[in-house]
Amino acid sequence: MGTYLYRIWPDRPELLVDGPTSDEERSIGEHYEYLKDLTARGIVLLAGRTRSETIDDFGIVVLVAESAAVARAIMLADPAVRDGVFVGDLFPYDLAMVSGDIGRHAGTAA
């Protein structure tokens, strides 16, 4: 088992400034449900996005998988990546520290 991180960003940068099309919105909703399911199954450890709402925004997903090939398959099966709404890059990732408070901060922004 290894830990991996995939970074995603919109293929169409205007999505973050002008908002999603109806097809993009559907795909992003499926993306959320996909990650929610993987989190419940213990595959996704952390998922989130930056909130600057500029074309520089990106999201990350930290997950565990048996191999880089399995991690890549998980990333490519993400509905927003699969549908071309988001582009993704996969990296091997070493968790160095994890706070027990991380769940308490989910969904909050400064």
Q: What this model shows, in words?
A:
- This protein is α+β, with helices and mostly antiparallel strands and about 110 residues long.
- It has a single domain, classed as Dimeric alpha+beta barrel (Alpha-Beta Plaits, 2-Layer Sandwich), CATH 3.30.70.1060.
- The protein is about 35% helix and about 25% strand.
- The protein is built from four helices and four strands, in the order βααββααβ.
- It has a four-stranded antiparallel beta sheet with strand order 2-3-1-4.
- The radius of gyration is 14 Å and the shape is globular.
- The relative contact order is 0.27.
Global shape:
globular
Q: What is the percentage of strand-forming residues?
A: 25-35%
CATH level 1 name: Alpha Beta
Structural class assignment: alpha+beta
Mean pLDDT: 91
CATH level 4 superfamily: Dimeric alpha+beta barrel
Largest sheet: 4 strands, antiparallel
Question: What is the CATH T-level topology?
Answer: Alpha-Beta Plaits
The low-confidence parts are: none
How much helical structure, as a percent, in the residues?
Answer: 25-40%
Quaternary:
single chain
What's the N-to-C terminus distance? 34 Å
Order of helices and strands: EHHEEHHE
CATH level-two architecture: 2-Layer Sandwich
Number of domains: 1
Strand order of the largest sheet: 2-3-1-4
User: What is the CA-based Rg, rounded?
Assistant: 14 Å
Q: Find the count of extended strands (DSSP E, 2+ residues).
A: 4
